[in-house]
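quick one, 275 residues, struct below
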Amino acid sequence: MLSTQQIASYRADGYLLVRGLVPEEMRLDVLVAIDRLLCAKQPHLRPSTRACVTGDVHAKILELAHTDRRALAKVYDAIRKVAPFWSMTGTPALVEASGQLLGSESVGVIFRGNGIRLDLPAEDKWRSAWHQEYHSQLSSVRAVTAWFSLVPVTADMGPVELLRGSHAEGLRSVRCLDPMNVHKNYAGTFELRDVGELTSKYALARHETEAGDVLFLDFLTVHQSGYNRDAARSRISSQVRYFDMMEPGAVANDWVGGWQEGGDFRLVHPDKVAL
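---
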């Protein structure tokens, strides 16, 4: 249960960091599942124990990236299918906290927008530049992303960077570069206008996180991926997106999500399409 102060902080800043919200055993279940997929593509490796998997998984990711980058891409796509991940998305702590932040008793899950990221050292191609979640995810402007670490994320691993309070201006106009993600690069779907003005107007926030910490992020808060400059560790994180199913816009648009579900931002918000 979140406190009144925490909810007020979220409303003011557009985000809230809650320490240790994801249970350790649940987090380890997910890492063990990822570890087994990595070993399945590298038969010479043995699965790690629960006690060691948080540290061991990094070397296995980097080895597969070096020997068979295509195989790692297949693992990346498969890890969102492991059952422990979906058990984690429905844990009461996450759902209840999201409902409090949304002020809703009708919390939905943008299931096609949920996943696990493996951000490798110095691999910037897939990182997301400044953006708002809503453009790609749709569903409702009253929504929240629960971003949480599956491993500790230190400053050199590139924590999420946020512009504190930027949600207050509402939905921003975007250039629709590839709104239906035809080119299979989520990071290149939309482009915010006037980024320089935004970054000078709002204070930058970023937080190192321990495994199990959860960063709740308003769908309208402007943020971007950090830069992983740790030579040996990947930034392994989960993103679960919840929304208010009773929000009028969500009802009017039949609760349809973003490009993953065939939802086209250009048709829903033609007034927010910049040339």
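The chain has ten helices and twelve strands.
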